[in-house]
Amino acid sequence: MDVSLIVSNFLNPPVLFFFLGITAVLVKSDLEIPPPVPKLLSLYLLFAIGFKGGVELAKSGITQDVIFTILAAIVMACLVPVYTFFILRWKLGTYDAAAIAATYGSISAVTFITASAFLNELSIAYDGYMVAALALMESPAIIVGLILVNLFTAEQSERETAWSEVLRDAFLNSSVFLLVGSLIIGVITGEHGWQVLEPFTQGMFYGVLTFFLLDMGLVAARRLKDLQKTGVFLTSFAILIPLVNAGLGIAIAKFISMSQGDALLFAVLCASASYIAVPAAMRLTVPEANPSLYVSTALAVTFPFNIVVGIPLYLYGINLLWR
């Protein structure tokens, strides 16, 4: 395992600015970001991720391998939040359980990029359309999370006729609508669209991501004391559930005959947790959920675990199964 690669990923600006936000709160700095700004940053990140995924999908075309990979990605993005929701409900309320379940059903783009660099270092090939799988695993988890919230917070009498409203809210929610719409536009416009929007979607992305994570650090630190109430349970969950999800992802990758490189990226997508799209969506749509729970577990526990232990461990398992 390349230690310098691990260190460089720990020291990348978005992660460091997240901890800068935490530090600002801990030392009682008056640093504050006006409320409309994080909402704008959230919408930008959803748009950029969706559009890039659509462009990558347009480049690769629709082959059998692409179809199987996309189906597998959607299945895992829908399945993970369901079983994690019921695990989390043992200790947490509906809003927090649904938000964390959606977080773990979605993915971490930075972890995916780290795994790609890890494969490059080892000269293991992987396909470009895996970026499309990354984008497609964002919205299903958000939709499932919103459905779970609607199902388990409505009164029984109201729930009987709530399905149409649940689905309408899930698919037409501003965050999901923007993400899926951007993906479709990326597919339609392809390379031409990418060239036109590249300075906005590519050039600004990491700067906006960095500023977004600074705000997430401020939000998480202000509510860190809430994590102490269920700290042991959530910390254990944030370490164990990536192993379970990665194991399922590897089994599916083997079943549909992915290459070893693609299998690792798919396992990482299944094992990672979102701290961009889902927190952005949850802050807009489920304000009752505590951001310190779903942001802290994903970013402070699962993210470093995957970087340090998960990625090489998943590749070790893949190498054993693919022999």
Model description:
The structure is a single chain. The chain has helices spanning 3-10, 13-26, 36-60, 64-88, 94-105, 109-121, 130-136, 139-153, 156-159, 163-172, 174-201, 205-222, 224-227, 231-255, 260-271, 277-285, 291-322. It has 323 residues and is mainly alpha-helical. Helix 5 (94-105) packs antiparallel against helix 8 (139-153). The two termini are 20 Å apart.
Number of strands: 0
The termini sit apart by 20 Å
Number of helices: 17
* Silhouette: globular
Structural class: mainly alpha
**Uncertain residue segments:** none
Q: The biggest beta sheet, please? A: none
Spell the H/E element sequence. HHHHHHHHHHHHHHHHH
Give the fraction of residues assigned to helices: over 70%
The fraction of residues assigned to DSSP E strands is under 5%
On the 0 to 100 scale, the average pLDDT is: 82
How large is the radius of gyration?
19 Å
